Amino acid sequence: MVCRFFRLRPDRFLAQLLCGCDGIHAGWNASSWYRHDALVPDAHRAGVSDPRQAKGHSQNRGKASYLLVPFIILSTLNLTHLSLKDNEPYTAVVFSDLALMINATVLFGIIYGIAIYYRKDPLTHARYMFCTIFPMFTPITDRLIYRNIRPLVEAAPTIDGSPIVPFWGFLLALILVGGLAFWDWKSNKRTDVFPAILGMLVLYHISVFTFHMIPAWRAFGEWFLGLSI
């Protein structure tokens, strides 16, 4: 949506932004932002334009997303497996990264599912579709920080001495969603969508910093990363 607003081609914009990124992270980043660019703009128009546009969204891209989103989720899980499986012995940082990637994908699926549930309520549907961007915020913010704002790397919280740079992406996402919640309450007297998203994001962010300490998660991680995919 940002690319379209500024009349940029998403493929060229991503290529410049992700320059120097390895293949796995480039795939993770590009899939995250392409998903948003492909699905959100029409949903947004469905919420703010006339009913014919809302109907067009529902019948065209809305139905196409039923096939696209499961494919993206499975592809993202595969990328997660490929990027982490060779990091034996698995450390706390690996299990934290696993929570970062898998739980983001799960949360994206949940938000998308809620958006589809409200597909006959265009304003609510558009809000949830827009919010699918927030679980996938960190691939871009991490890359920008590592390339341009190195002091934030050293200032990030750590796990076993390794900086968890996604912390800053988490913080930015929470600020933006909090601002949207305040705006929606002041402008539209709505307190249903953005506060709910804020709560989901907080739980997701906590999981990235805590799941590596849970034996069940470590067992799941060893099983998942040991799969022959």
UniProtKB/TrEMBL annotation:
Domain of life of the source: Bacteria
Question: Transmembrane segments in this chain: where?
Answer: 64-84, 90-116, 128-146, 166-185, 197-217
- Recite the UniProt keywords alphabetically: Membrane, Transmembrane, Transmembrane helix
Which named protein is this? Uncharacterized protein
